[in-house]
Amino acid sequence: MADRGREGGNVTKESVWEKPDGFQAEKQPATDKKVEKSSEPGQPTPRVRKYHDHPGGQWVVFFRPKSMPLNVMRIAADLEKNYSGVTEVTKLHRNKLRVALDNAKEANGIVCDPKFCVDYLVWIPARSVEIDGVVSEEHLTVQQVLKGVGLFKRKNLPTVQVIEVRQMGSSDGDGENKKFVPTNSYRVTFAKKAGTHQGFLQQQDDLRQVRRKSPD
What we know:
Elements lengths: L1 H5 L9 E3 L4 E4 L32 E7 L6 H11 L3 E8 L2 E6 L2 H7 L3 H4 L2 E4 L2 H4 E7 L5 H5 L2 E3 L8 E13 L6 E13 L8 E4 L2 E4 L1 E3 L3
Antiparallel strand pairs: 1-2, 2-9, 3-5, 3-6, 4-5, 7-10, 7-13, 8-9, 8-11, 9-10, 11-12
């Protein structure tokens, strides 16, 4: 059934998820595992964000309570024992902890570490690792955009990966008659590297302008 919804470049509820922020994403394979909704403000994308390789800089990870209050002393002790790259642990307020590292690999490891992510919300800020843009064109599909790469106006910069694509649209109708109306615009999330901003989406020989958009 899902394949029928993709014919002619159309997007239907069978082929995509409908999201409350007016975006849709390509439907994922069925799973027995229940997806836990994030309690972070703005309902960020439910996937682990990671730092991308680039020289120098500081890498920051944040903690919030989830199944238990922040135990700062225990967290700091576990970090010191397992992550030599930690340079600073700062309690910003009762429900938020900031950890700074000099090692991107270790920062990525912390957000996936069961010692922390089971009891706490542990995340890397979206603005540190991603850039969002908008691409608009008739007959363009999610699958086509996913096959592209981010290209910069400065030709000496390497291309960057497309991480996520969501079709933009608006709601039409009220109550039970309310439905999502897709447009020909797509919100594209690119991997971010230090000091870089994407300018184009490249798909083989095709080049499309990307309008800048701040991530959630």
